[in-house]
Amino acid sequence: MNANHARDESNSNVPSKRPLVQRLVPFPTDDMKVHWARRTLTLSLVVTILCAACQSWIMINQTQKLKELLAASTGSKADADIWQKWKTEMTYHSVFLASIFFGLYVTWDGIMNHNTLEIVATNFYYAGMLGYATAQIFQVLEGRNLIMNQSLLDGSVGTYTGIFLAALLLLPILLGIFLPVFAVFTRYLNRDFDWRMYRITGGEIDMTKYFSAYHVTLLLLKFDAFFVSAFTVIDLVLTRVSARGIIVIPSLGAVVGIAAMLTGYYGIRYELRISLFTFLSLMLVIMGYIIQRLYEAFVQEYDQVQRIKIPYLFYAVVSMGLSVACFLGGVRCWWNFGKGLKTVLDQESKRKDGVYAQEEMNLEE
């Protein structure tokens, strides 16, 4: 009777699992502040909405200009040039629009998991977005001039409006203002989140290394999934692919990508060797796919890819680098199996969900 009463009393002290809102928005805990986390997330959300609105307006406006240029074109070759240029620009605009939302996701994920490393990496990611937003200005204007010269169209046709140019300029301005502010917020987040790593690892040097390897590999996996997806979209739209390939590559790619993400996460997090072995095998498949597509593009069909070779190569090289890093990170995590990381991560997960009851010490004994 007393034992049952003691067990009921112990269970009553264990809080219930977090409600949905606390899984989406940072909430304070007994040892974690969320003041700077909420500020950072709010700022990132506002900047994402503004940048997405600017990029969407650019895409809508360029679609309208496409119709004007086609209406004033001088023949089938001019039409083909205009269509090809528009398709190229829309592909890169779409990837950039997706990258804006991906930046918000990585920021949110880093904040909700109190992962300083992920927030620091996001700073570099936003710096890359700033570089692309700046290059996009010259790309759009140069593209229009190229169409005019090749198609022999009058310069007044397809003229960009002031609002369009303002949106084009506002993108790098927004990101340029946001970057230093985000860097300052990162410093404050690092101060708030540092305690989490110490609490999980207990300050042990070896455990800190295992924990860092775990976080780095999962972070690389997220970025790899995005860049490989972006490379696949660019490859399918802007290079010559057979009708069968148009169906097989995205379908099979989606299966392989999702399988790699799931097997990688569960294999590393729960130290499942078969799952991690599957992940490593899938990463080799992804690397083989990138190499094969590069060979097809630059050896078999160089003329087709020459006009887009710099951005095409950029996404290919970044995707390959991230895939290799994920593979090496998976091997490193495999080496760390059985050294206690899973136990401390399980405890942290229970504490985060409010179902971990710390054992009370009886000081009277």
Brief summary:
The chain is mostly helical and 365 residues long. It contains 12 helices and no strands. It has helices at residues 2-12, 20-24, 35-71, 76-112, 116-151, 162-201, 205-238, 243-269, 273-300, 302-305, 309-335, 341-353.
Report on the structure:
The protein is mostly helical and 365 residues long. 82% of the residues lie in helices and 0% in strands. It is built from twelve helices and no strands. Helix 8 runs antiparallel to helix 9. The chain is globular, with a radius of gyration of 25 Å. It starts with a helix and ends in a 12-residue tail after the last helix.
Report how far the terminal alpha carbons are from each other.
23 Å
Question: What percent of the residues sit in helical stretches (DSSP H or I)?
Answer: over 70%
* Unreliable stretches covering 5 or more consecutive residues: 5-15, 359-365
**Residue fraction in strands:** under 5%
Number of strands: 0
Calculate the mean pLDDT score and round it. Answer: 82
Largest sheet: none
SSE order in H/E notation? HHHHHHHHHHHH
What is the radius of gyration computed over CA atoms, rounded to a whole number of angstroms? 25 Å
Rough outline: globular
How many DSSP helices?
12
